[in-house]
Amino acid sequence: MFRQRLIAPGPVEISGDVQRALSLPQIHHRSPEAKIILKRSLELLRVVAGLPETTGWQPLILTMSGTGAFEAVLSSLVPRGAKFASLSAGKFGERWSDMAKLLGYEVTEQRFAWGESIPPSAASSIAPETRALLVTHSETSTGALHDLERIARAARAVSPEILIIVDAITSLGMAELRPVEWGLDAIVSGSQKAVAGPPGLGLVFLSPRALEVLNTGGSSGCYLDLRRELKVQPQGETAFTPAINLIVGLNASLEPIAAEIEQIGLPAYWAGKKALNDALLAAALSLGCSSFAQVPSPACVTLIPPAPITGRMLWSALLKRGARAQTGQDAIKDAICRISFMGHFDRYDALAFAGLLEEALVDCGAQVTRGAGVAAAWQALEGK
Ligand SMILES: *Cc1c(COP(=O)(O)O)cnc(C)c1O
Questions:
Q1: Domain 16-262, CATH
Q2: Residue spans in the chain of domains classed CATH 3.90.1150.10
Q3: Which atom of ligand 1 is nearest to the CA of 199?
């Protein structure tokens, strides 16, 4: 059967072990096996996020996509009518301020041009009475990485009590992310991105300060009330029927990822991910493409092909060769092509996709010296 490779920024390919885990007989979510698997997954997520129990942070697995998990965090942590600040420079960042408005919060927004990284100084102008800051770490719509450490520091300088709520959906397990050192309060991710599980699970991590707010404040949600999950998940239970099969699949995906992180450490793990993305980007630049993102996230490259080739044409040429990347969104829908190595890619994949990029660009009519992209990828991988 024709196999299509997924090189889109989510969902990503799942391993054979995950596929097998997803095909196991149905278990009951209140059974001892289910409890063991949920507890184990939470333990493994702690490794991926660098948040051992000693930090006082609590991970949660929710049956919903990343967007649902983000909404659960907002409505659980912040009472309706409270003031939010939102910093954005792309589709996802804008989604969070729109969401907060829909939920009845008062939102002060600062939007920056797509492709830019949010200037950390923007956080200095947040009003001191602001209850929470919404920010996206890796803006997958533009491929830009935001300087979350400096943004959080600037926000904290304005208000020591502000809750810093982060869309880490494509930065968790890809980019340097230090929730404790950077003073974050909630980070959200999804099962279909760097942890390479099946889509359908939201991943949430809450700081000790967020937990205190939850335990003392009122939440307006029901299914989305995280207090219900907090009460039971540490014991391996969930408030409602979870997508237990997806959790079994996620668990199978997390095992080797956490094992690698425990072996080499998070900084080396992040460096490995970045190296692959850098290699692909180097290949693309050598072939006449440019990066839409000022500061590229290691979670994806966003390519502007040489004119008159559009991002959509490149996307289409890749798809014809069995590789499903992604076009842009909204105003940059046809302009860019996004390629991601989230999940299980190694340096030989990076070299192969550099070769594929050459061929796809030739197909689009670009003047390409065969081997130039692969050579550039090799150079980047060798640190030259
Ligand atoms: C994929 C993605 C989302 C959306 O997540 P869903 O699981 O589709 O709800 C949000 N933010 C970023 C940065 C993403 O990459």
A1: 3.40.640.10
A2: 266-381
A3: 7
Q: Which CATH superfamily is domain 266-381 in?
A: Aspartate Aminotransferase, domain 1 (3.90.1150.10)
| DSSP conformation letters of 288-341 | T-EESSSSB-TT-EEEEPSTT--HHHHHHHHHHTTEE-EE--GGGTTT-EEE--
For the CA of 65, the closest atom of ligand 1 is 7
Record the pTM.
Answer: 0.97
Splitting the chain (384 residues) into consecutive groups of 10 residues, what average pLDDT does each group show? 84 97 98 98 98 98 98 94 96 98 96 97 96 98 98 96 97 98 98 98 98 85 94 97 98 98 98 98 98 98 98 98 96 97 96 97 96 98 89
Best mutation site among 61, 92, 97, 189 for ligand 1, i.e. most ligand atoms within 8 A of its Cβ?
Answer: 92
Q: How far is CA 165 from the centre of its chain?
A: 14
Please state at what angle helix 347-363 crosses helix 372-381, rounded to 10 degrees: 150
Residue extent(s) of CATH 3.40.640.10 domains in the chain: 16-262
Q: Which atom of ligand 1 is nearest to the CA of 139?
A: 13
How many Å lie between the centroid of ligand 1 and the Cα of residue 203? 11
Q: Say how many Å lie between the CA of residue 169 and the centre of ligand 1.
A: 6
pLDDT at residue 2 in the model: 57
